[in-house]
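Reading a protein record of the kind used here takes only a little practice. To see the layout at work, look at the sequence and tokens printed below.
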Amino acid sequence: MAKYDLDVVARILLSLLESPKGRTALYMRTGLNYPRFLQYLDFLKDRGLVAEVDGSVRLTERGKEVALALAKALEDLT
């Protein structure tokens, strides 16, 4: 089973909290190679945090809750 870096997961979720993005735009924000990015995307889809709709990746309701909680936690640390 592949390991997933919390920093990369956070970058994806927080980026999508700003707005839905196409795969390429989202991929560019991760710093990963494309095959590894797709693994992260599948990881987040499997957990019900993101979905692909009309050619863009967006947060699900659950994903939005997680991203907002993550943003608050990061804000509390700074």
Summary: Residues 6-77 form a domain with the Arc Repressor Mutant, subunit A fold (CATH 1.10.10.10).
